[in-house]
């Protein structure tokens, strides 16, 4: 019984290989590249995409920003960060906490409610938003609230 089982496995294992070269059909014409009827083109953008808070996102969480730049004579801060595509990833709100020595800015992102039955591609989008300060930045340090 064991010999029969072993012989059967051996026959099965050797018959699973590729066909011998003589039995392979040679292509009659060279292979052609596939025809693309609607090629996808991407146009590079000039800098980060400006966005404003939506205030109605769901599944909200803190997100770290990558760059903070003082603008308008220190009265505003321009933030830049990497995010996902809309409506799957939207800026929900920006929290600004000012003290004498530092300005803590926290970005909150989530998903737009209209993205319930939407498929989203996984691609990074650089975004930017600008926030107003109560008092000019001066010598205060800018701190990312998502990192604290």
What would the average pLDDT be, to the nearest integer?
Answer: 82
Oligomer: single chain
Tally the beta strands. Answer: 8
**Order of strands in the sheet with most strands:** 1-7-4-3
Q: Determine Rg (CA atoms, Å).
A: 29 Å
**Main beta sheet: strand number and arrangement?**
4 strands, mixed
The SS-based structural class is mainly beta
| Total of DSSP H or I helical runs spanning 4+ residues | 1
| Uncertain spans | 36-41
Beta-strand percentage range:
35-45%
Structural shape: elongated
- Report the helical percentage: under 10%
The span between the termini is 70 Å
Order of helix and strand elements from N to C terminus: HEEEEEEEE
What features would you describe in this structure?
The chain has 148 residues and is mainly beta. It has a domain at 47-148. It is built from one helix and eight strands, in the order αββββββββ. A four-stranded mixed β-sheet has the order 1-7-4-3, with no helix packed on it. The protein is elongated.
What topology does this entry show?
Elements: H1 2-15, E1 49-50, E2 58-63, E3 67-71, E4 76-83, E5 90-98, E6 102-111, E7 125-132, E8 141-144
Quick rundown:
The protein has one helix spanning 2-15; strands spanning 49-50, 58-63, 67-71, 76-83, 90-98, 102-111, 125-132, 141-144.
Pick out its properties.
4-stranded mixed beta sheet, 35% strand, mainly beta, 8 strands, 148 residues, 1 helix, elongated
